[in-house]
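Q: What does the predicted 3D structure of NAD-dependent succinate-semialdehyde dehydrogenase look like?
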Amino acid sequence: MQQSTIDTVYPPTGTLVGGEWRKARSGATFPVHDPATGEVIATVADADPEDAADAMDAAAAAFPRWSATPPKQRAALLHNAFLALQERAEEFARLITLEMGKPLAESRAEVAYAADFLRWYAEEAVRITGTFRTAPDGTARHLTLRQPVGPCLLVTPWNFPLAMITRKVAPALAAGCTVILKPAEETPLSALQFAHILTDVGVPAGVVNVLNTSRPGPLVETILRDGRIRKLSFTGSTEVGRKLLEQAAPGVLRTSMELGGNAPFIVFDDADVDAAVEGAVAAKLRNGGQSCVAANRFVVADPVASRFVDGLAERLRGQVVGPGTDPRSTLGPMINEKQRNRAVGLVDDAVSHGAVPAVHYRTAGRGDAFLNPVLLDRVPSSARIAREEIFGPVATVYRFSTEQEGLALANATESGLVGYVYTRDLNRALRAVEAMECGMVGVNRGYVSDASAPFGGVKQSGLGREGSEVGIQEYLETKYASIDAGALA
Ligand code: SIN
């Protein structure tokens, strides 16, 4: 394997099946690229449906024992994984930057975020409860218990190569489920390194299986068709999510779907505009805009719109675009040239429909995946960018005059993941929280992600929640026993 330009400890590169690191059955591998340079930084085992069948056998075989493992033991393993990840935080941050491109400071924040899910679900593992009640007519006692759903397939994205994994693996393991993890093909290395931590701390063979593949379709389909899989958890685009929902339907699988967003960011006329600009930078540029919670549409009241646009333009022009490994960089490359060109296409389409560029793109002159930030004002609703998730460092502004108009603009999308609102009026903030059609709202802040909070969307942004005490419920089924009370009389 090629040595990187930064000091990175490389993970194993095989598949993890039944506790063994193996080559793919076919012997195939695929390359992993550094988005900043396009260079190949590693090759990893390219799993196919045969490997998927092996992983399914392993996850099914490990389930009875793992689900019966005392919660305190499951909690201890997760806690030890949390400690190990914290200890090796810098190594993971470098690996994330190397394969995904974000600046090191952001990768460090991702590792802390990822570790938080391990800590949180180590604590939740011992708090799985049930109920016991007397039936209203007195004839029975009702006992309810929560049991793990069974082996789960976890499909994770490239934008947070570690945190989106711990957000699924930790609650699944805490609940007593076994898993097959299918990370994004762009970023397999963080996943493999994390799996290594899990085996190191003693997670038993078969409880966590990892398959990387360059052809996810057939592999995922094989697992979803296997009668032993009981749950699919997916984070990714709405388009792929719809297909997976179809594939999950014949087996009537439990699903958690964390899909695309088109987040509105409302700035009312009474807002602290400077604070709104700060929040806008955070909500737009975290992860280079490559996040489902990135603000897509800045919906700004007429009286403050010019001040907001000027302030945001200044902040966007001040970004230092460069490789994530360079400590001066505040904005890294996008994941690849294809994504960059897609964002550029959306900008060109908006400008051709009449949007006014306040900051126009320039080629960063560094490599094919780099894009300098863009700000478009007075974007017409006819532009594609008004409807599509941007997933890049492009900000769009839509102006409004009344509160109702602002809220209607914010809700004019089929997505409903997150919204942001800036106002000094508490009543208006609460009206907006209630009126906004989304699963999460940031009030006077451009950041909502937290392991202790229920993350998820409404409308076409998904099903279910991750994080908090709610997240573990996605991996548990309710069983109820009705106990005849006759003998008690
Ligand atoms: C995502 O973009 O998929 C998740 C972002 C987050 O958890 O903050």
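A (community wiki): The structure tokens above were generated from the sequence. The chain has a mean pLDDT of 96. Residues 157, 159-160, 164, 235, 291-293, 449, 455 surround succinic acid (CB under 6 Å).
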